[in-house]
Amino acid sequence: MKLQLIFLTLFLTLIQAVEAQVKFEAKVSKEKLGMNERLRVDFEMNQDGDNFTPPNFSGFQVIGGPNQSISNTWVNGKRSYSKSFSYYLSPTRRGKFTIKQATIEINGETYKTLPVKVEVTASVDKPKDGNSSDVIASENLHLVAEVSKSTPYLNEAITVEYKLYVSPRINVSNWKELDSPKYSDFWSQAIDMKQLKVRNGEYNGEPYRYVVLRKTVLYPQKTGKLNIEPLTLSVTVDVPTNRRDFFGGRLYTSIDKRVAAGNRTIRVKPLPEQGRPDDFTGAVGTFEFDVKVNKKVLSATESLEARVSVFGNGNLKLFDIPTLSVPNGLEKYEPEHNERVRTNLSGMAGTISDTYTLVPQYKGKYPLPSLSFSYFDLKTESYKRITSDEIIINVNKGPEGNTEVEGNDESNETFKKVVTQVGNQFRFIKTDTTLTLVEKKYFFKSTPYWLALTLPLLAIPVFLFLGKKREERKSDVKGNRVRKADKLARKYLSEAKKNLGDQKAFYIAMEKALHNYLKAKLSIQTSDMSKERIQRLLKEKNVDEATSIEFIALLESCEFARYTPSSGSAMQQDYDKASRVIAAMDKRL
């Protein structure tokens, strides 16, 4: 029993002696570095000491330090102490060097570190400081642009996804965009990211967390080598340090790190010339085509609607629909263009259509000739043509005219049908008249005479009142500025309508109209305009949110039009939207 007690006492004493053993050692951030890199040297001890003496660092120049750090923690009732002196060194020449011994006094005893050998080589391409927070963030944070297809056809949809990869070694607390890509050679549509989801994945074979920050659908508008500009972010990164808190937890330092997705290059193939139809207008995808009327039997002067539609998947907003041609005797009005198109990761899908109002003038049969629509099919990589059927319009009642109408027979040859007339075509004009004798009346002392005499006298106070109001209006500088801006808004909106078809002139006039409208209604200058402020002011004026969103979308359309091409139908749609939104806002403002 006594022997066991003796062994137990010796064992506990040995443990305490081991725990009380003093540690004093030198650590370097790297054992091999280039002339343009930096070296960090830490002299660490597990007990407090005095009279620390560093070595002379032969072959290096001290550019930082000594920096002193102390860590004192308690875990399960046991105290853990650490103290270090850190130096940052810059090599002065190439070669092999030795970090000599440092000394310190602990409890009256002098302790020395072991020498550490370091090799300095020629300068490296990318200098790194392995313990630098910036380097740690760079090695564990990556922004990647993933392109769905690197060799698309002209007007073929591709998708760009921007993913932020974060290593488990660091944390990301915030991020914001510094520079967004312009996509100057593409038609682009951003996919709405309602909620960002963190997923687990791999980057270069290592486990990472990642989040998809942005998805954009692009339609290349030029052939050849095109560049996709990078997305640049400023990210707040929490990087672990060598320091710990009172409870032993590792302390983090926050740095702002700038990351970019890098340029991506794609090669856009031109559409083949072989087999290209004469009526091809640039449609690329998979489509259906039809022509329909809402009635085939009617009377003269009644109206019918003819709808020309293209539906399917492809670049629906980037080509024009075939134009409906009608025979003589049918009056055709400008079509109403309608787009019901949604954009997802596979591109645009939906329906575009032109609806014509037709009014027959005479009794007879009117053939609407067949229309053809051609597109490039991406699945078969060939051109396809769809031809609609001929439609016969029967006008049963109405005047008969000696009019020839043209149409197409089944052999696709043009033929003419004669609409015969019966009777006199001028029978609706009356030739008999009935004249009535008008009684003579004298002007003197008549009612008009007295009115002409008294009205100028009565008009004097009216003119004085109007003159006073005119002077007040001239002195109202702010009101005149508002009225002038409102007048300019109407002027430029009218100018935009005149320039439909000329993208640059149209959107310049449209943007001026919107800006002057804001000046007139919100008393805001162009230099002070921002989307957030405009939305806030419109909300204060009780403009409903949907109208406000549409107005901001119009401003964005004007801005994007500088970098992306627009079709004539898109410009018409933007003009109609502007007229509707301004009318709706006028009711509130």
From TrEMBL:
<keyword id="KW-0472">Membrane</keyword>
<dbReference type="InterPro" id="IPR025738">
    <property type="entry name" value="BatD"/>
</dbReference>
<dbReference type="Pfam" id="PF13584">
    <property type="entry name" value="BatD"/>
</dbReference>
<feature type="signal peptide">
    <location>
        <begin position="1"/>
        <end position="20"/>
    </location>
</feature>
<keyword id="KW-0732">Signal</keyword>
<keyword id="KW-1133">Transmembrane helix</keyword>
<keyword id="KW-0812">Transmembrane</keyword>
<feature type="transmembrane region" description="Helical">
    <location>
        <begin position="449"/>
        <end position="466"/>
    </location>
</feature>
<protein>
    <submittedName>
        <fullName>BatD family protein</fullName>
    </submittedName>
</protein>
